[in-house]
């Protein structure tokens, strides 16, 4: 039995905002099946009572004083933008036609 | 000895004494880069004029009587995953082609403050995902020992640049072995500091709970000098450790293992390991014993599931981190013809801008984090992570350092594993546990494998904030082996 189907990979690609070509989907589905089969080995470890670690070191959240500091000038922030209009990022439409 | 064959420490001293200028040192390295880059392809960006301007500035600061650090005027190659305002920053990806960041990474800033002269930006696996540098969108880097082989990865441009004498020092980042493995397969020194010991601010994120900047050099002392130059607490990185940098330079100057307890990790070795790698490793263990170390075997049973846990945790974090490449504020934008929605443009851009390994990992991470699979995959991997940290903790009650081969094999041929992701992932088998637990580890050259005459690395692992121990042991090994060899391992590499 395969660990992951082509349809599942297609669904994950949509969730990940990756417009994959059909050949890419075929290729990745086969490879991901092998990879997921291998990483599923973590399930063999008896770890019911073990607390999870999200992080290597026991750090707690760090806050800085809430002080105003200089930030980027508009031209710096926009310098690498794909499209700019009136000192703002110009983006494709983000709402559906009905909006 | 030519300037390009001189160590960073010696170059710093020569420049400080006025025997040579920073400009002369930069010129020598730029000439070397011009000569060997067509073969090696270590750099994505070199700007000779900008390099010389930095060198002139160091000479001027010195002439003005400014007190400068030990590496002032020494050239360095900088991994192209750290932001630089005056050079492009691509992370080896088409999605960031030509990108000029608006701020410097903390590591970049500290290199500048220390007076290091940045020669250029080095090649890497796209977004630091890989073990061969073949995943770069800008073509592979070649191993100076054998141009048909990989220089390791992801920091393969940085390892190759140092091994090919294009720079005495370089920066890398290590998420699963991306400094230690390239160092091992190119016959140089590479160090993964304790997580949080070096700043991630301005480091383009791959897996934030694992990413660690670190140094490459041709010898242990040079690596320690660079380590010290860019490490230390950074308020701009919320996971930065607020503790003094371990005294790594002092340790590198005083290599000594007398009375040291050394643990050999039982789980690393056997099937899948190249005989020549194991032979050099066992000799290194005997060497440590002959130098007065007490060697014992240590079992770390959870290390055998480190690789699967890593390939759930790292892609999960990557799938989240790389969501920022959305074609809106910077980087590539594809298909914005006025008819498509932002979401369609985003999906087209990401499909065109990311390479296959990045796409695989984004999909894998999205899968591991999706509801229904989260507990079985990501959640379970996090528990394994706890067990690995406990194995280290128990081991470091018994011994001062742990040792293993850095990689199971020497440098493999370019193309051999390019379309077999699982085979590629095995290159990081011995290095991954350290990333999951956050402790320190170094790779130091320990000889050439008999089968192929290629370099083998010895990995030395120390507890969290025990970075100095890595350098102390590595320096002792280096000194003893160089006496035996009559020079550095790298001096045995064929001339380019």
TrEMBL record, chain A:
Signal peptide: none annotated. Its EC number is 6.3.5.-. It catalyses: L-glutamyl-tRNA(Gln) + L-glutamine + ATP + H2O = L-glutaminyl-tRNA(Gln) + L-glutamate + ADP + phosphate + H(+); L-aspartyl-tRNA(Asn) + L-glutamine + ATP + H2O = L-asparaginyl-tRNA(Asn) + L-glutamate + ADP + phosphate + 2 H(+). Gene3D superfamilies: Glu-tRNAGln amidotransferase C subunit, N-terminal domain (1.10.20.60). It comes from the Bacteria. One of its GO terms (biological process) is glutaminyl-tRNAGln biosynthesis via transamidation. Keywords: ATP-binding, Ligase, Nucleotide-binding, Protein biosynthesis. The keyword Protein biosynthesis applies. PANTHER family: GLUTAMYL-TRNA(GLN) AMIDOTRANSFERASE SUBUNIT C, MITOCHONDRIAL. Belongs to the GatC family. NCBIfam families: gatC (TIGR00135). This is Aspartyl/glutamyl-tRNA(Asn/Gln) amidotransferase subunit C. It comes from Streptosporangium carneum.
Automatic annotation (TrEMBL), chain B:
It catalyses: L-glutamyl-tRNA(Gln) + L-glutamine + ATP + H2O = L-glutaminyl-tRNA(Gln) + L-glutamate + ADP + phosphate + H(+). GO terms for molecular function: ATP binding; glutaminyl-tRNA synthase (glutamine-hydrolyzing) activity. It is an enzyme of class 6 (ligase). One of its GO terms (biological process) is translation. One of its GO terms (cellular component) is glutamyl-tRNA(Gln) amidotransferase complex. Belongs to the amidase family. GatA subfamily. PANTHER family: GLUTAMYL-TRNA(GLN) AMIDOTRANSFERASE SUBUNIT A, TRANSAMIDASE. This is Glutamyl-tRNA(Gln) amidotransferase subunit A. It comes from Streptosporangium carneum. The gene is gatA.
């Amino acid at each position: 039995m395969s660990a992951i189907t082509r349809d599942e990979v297609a669904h994950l690609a949509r969730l990940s905002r990756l417009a994959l070509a059909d050949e890419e989907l075929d290729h990745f589905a086969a490879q991901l099946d092998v990879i997921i089969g291998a990483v599923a080995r973590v399930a063999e470890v008896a770890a019911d009572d073990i607390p999870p670690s999200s992080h290597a070191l026991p750090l707690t959240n760090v806050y800085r004083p809430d002080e105003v500091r200089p930030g980027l000038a508009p031209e710096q922030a926009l310098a690498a933008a794909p499209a700019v209009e009136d000192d703002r990022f110009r983006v494709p439409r983000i709402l559906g036609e009905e909006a | 000895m030519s300037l390009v064959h001189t160590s960073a420490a010696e170059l710093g001293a020569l420049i400080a004494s006025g025997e040579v200028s920073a400009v002369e040192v930069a010129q020598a390295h730029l000439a070397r880069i011009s000569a060997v880059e067509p073969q090696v392809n270590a750099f994505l960006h070199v700007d000779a004029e900008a390099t010389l301007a930095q060198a002139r500035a160091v000479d001027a600061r010195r002439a003005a009587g400014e007190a400068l650090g030990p590496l002032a005027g020494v050239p360095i190659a900088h991994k192209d995953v750290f932001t630089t305002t005056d050079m492009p920053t691509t992370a080896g990806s088409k999605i960031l082609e030509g990108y000029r960041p608006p701020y410097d990474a903390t590591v970049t800033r500290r290199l500048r403050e220390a007076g290091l002269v940045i020669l250029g930006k080095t090649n890497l696996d796209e977004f630091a995902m890989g073990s061969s540098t073949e995943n770069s969108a800008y073509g592979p880097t070649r191993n100076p020992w054998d141009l048909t082989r990989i220089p390791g990865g992801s920091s393969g441009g940085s390892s190759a640049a140092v091994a090919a004498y294009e720079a005495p020092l370089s920066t890398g980042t290590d998420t699963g072995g991306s400094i230690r493995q390239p160092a091992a397969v190119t016959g140089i020194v590479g160090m993964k500091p304790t997580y949080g010991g070096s700043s991630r601010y301005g480091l383009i994120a791959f897996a934030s709970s694992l990413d660690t900047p670190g140094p490459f050099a041709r010898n242990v002392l040079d690596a320690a000098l660079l380590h010290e130059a860019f490490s230390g607490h950074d308020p701009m990185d919320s996971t930065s450790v607020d503790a003094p940098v371990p005294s790594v330079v002092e340790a590198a100057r005083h290599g000594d293992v007398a009375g040291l307890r050394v643990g050999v990790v039982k789980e690393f070795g056997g099937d899948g390991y190249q005989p020549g790698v194991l032979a050099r490793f066992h000799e290194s263990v005997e060497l440590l014993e002959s130098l007065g170390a007490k060697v014992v075997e240590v079992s770390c049973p959870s290390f055998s599931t480190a690789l699967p846990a890593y390939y759930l945790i790292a892609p999960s974090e990557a799938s989240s981190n790389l969501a920022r490449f959305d074609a809106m504020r910077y980087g590539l934008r594809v298909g914005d013809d006025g008819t498509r929605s932002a979401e369609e443009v985003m999906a087209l851009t990401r499909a065109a801008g990311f390479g296959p390994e990045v796409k695989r990992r984004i999909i894998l991470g999205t899968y591991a984090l999706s509801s229904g699979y989260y507990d079985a995959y990501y959640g379970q991997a996090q528990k394994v992570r706890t067990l690995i940290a406990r194995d280290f903790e128990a081991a470091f009650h018994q011994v001062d350092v742990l040792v293993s081969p850095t990689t199971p094999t020497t440098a493999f041929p370019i193309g051999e594993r390019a379309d077999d992701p699982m085979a590629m992932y095995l290159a990081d088998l011995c290095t991954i546990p350290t990333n999951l637990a956050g402790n320190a580890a170094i790779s130091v050259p320990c000889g050439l494998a008999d089968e192929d005459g290629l370099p083998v690395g010895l990995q030395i692992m120390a507890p969290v904030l025990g970075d100095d121990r890595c350098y102390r042991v590595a320096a002792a090994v280096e000194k003893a082996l160089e006496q035996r060899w009559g020079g550095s391992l790298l001096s045995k590499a064929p001339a380019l």
